[in-house]
Amino acid sequence: MPADIVETTVMGDFTFVKAVTPPDGYNTSSDGPSIPAKDIKAYRESLIIACSFCHKSFRYKLVCAKCKVAAYCSKECQKKQWPLHKFVCQESKAAAKLKLVTTLMSIPRFELTLMSTFAFTFGLHKKMILDRPLIMQCDLAVDAADMSIIFSLTSGKQTPDDYPDGVEGMLQLKWFSPLDPAVVIDPGRRKIWEEARAKNHVKRRAPIGKYVTGLIDFHMEGTDQVITMPLNIADQAIALSRMVAGGVCAQDPVLRHEINVPFSPRVAIGTMDMIIRDDKKNHLRLRTHMPKEALYKYVGNNINEHDLDMLPTTTYATKDGKRIKTAVPRLNGPY
């Protein structure tokens, strides 16, 4: 079996192939014009985040040099938090560092996907919730960009020692889940929400309470730290959540007609992860170095089956040794 094929399943005259890369001639989800790096950088630098100590909103410039996760509005705040921060600060081997998170939020297509998924999850397409903060958790990880390496390690065909200098990694989203505001909204998060909410309505020249402002807790593999960022839900995202509420269309590779697939956060995650996977030239700036030590998560008891299942593989059908042209992207696991 070729290295890029994970498994095959035979059903009658058809063979379904699960692969880590799209077949030749398959139009990947990353097709289209790339975003200039300078535009991503400019937007990223304009993002407002909260100081890890005082929770004051600011355009981040000062980031912990060791963990590269905690951000501060001043050196004074950094010094004041150190007695607590030192217990969680570590030079992470595979964490999606702050720069990757802010880059993710700087890509308009991804930001809109996050907004619409947020709106769908909390039912904002049915009823707007404006009087209290809503918060969602987004789990992130860095995986080997060449996914054949992942399956070679999990199968035992290779070991991390085969990659002494590490490999190229890519940011991957693992899960979206709503959180209970009554449990997780502490004074710091409430301050972030209130400031973002006020600025959003000033920007739109509308009274406070007309537009939705949410929060996303980014939980990153390899660190206990959390990055909380505000998410101002655009009208376009509400409209999109209404559209997908009835399901999304996909092509059945055997029957060759469209089928309706219920929308869920898994569908959104799959779309984003596949775009990142297919961005071979790193136009999105969501790739990073993955050291040898980080590869041990693909070995033995370290393997997280859920995370493995969330990898953006592609499933397509063949008949009589020929690929059926209606290849279907696998949107991260069963729908």
TrEMBL record:
GO MF, one annotated term: zinc ion binding
SUPFAM superfamilies given in the database record: HIT/MYND zinc finger-like
InterPro entries: Znf_MYND
Domain MYND-type: 51-89
Listed name of the protein: MYND-type domain-containing protein
Keyword tags: Metal-binding, Zinc, Zinc-finger
Cleaved signal peptide residues: none
